[in-house]
Amino acid sequence: MSNNNQKTVRELINELSFKFDSANLYYGHGTDNAFDEAVYLVFSLLNFSFDVEDEKLNEIVDAEMQNKIEHFANRRISERLPVAYLVNKAWFCGMPFYVDERVLIPRSPIAELIEENFSPWISQDDQITRILDIGTGSACIAIAASIAFPYADVDAI
Question: Which residues, listed in sequence order, are joined to residue 61 by a DSSP beta bridge?
């Protein structure tokens, strides 16, 4: 990706996907493959939502942003940093959370339990009044639980 070679969003994603795949990176911090990792990086830096219209992928990315994307991609490869740390954003229960190296990247199966109100273990008739998040980092579990159970007292330690 050079400054004088304008590329579309789609082209950048495909190039990064190939680079990531060739670098034998580990996935599992929000994605599980090189293509999704490239999408996550490019969309995050371009401030695109993940349900962006397909036509947006044909837009040209300006040289300054291409350089920024390339810089982050190179850090992903050389430093083996997860994209979530590079862009300071991870998703949990459909909500974005700020993350950096001080916290684990949210990817817990607890998100599914929260989204399903802990069914089948807790009945919809049960009134949840207390929730404890032990070992909170980004506080994503505590925050998601407080939204799912608005009448519960949530402690995060």
Answer: 7
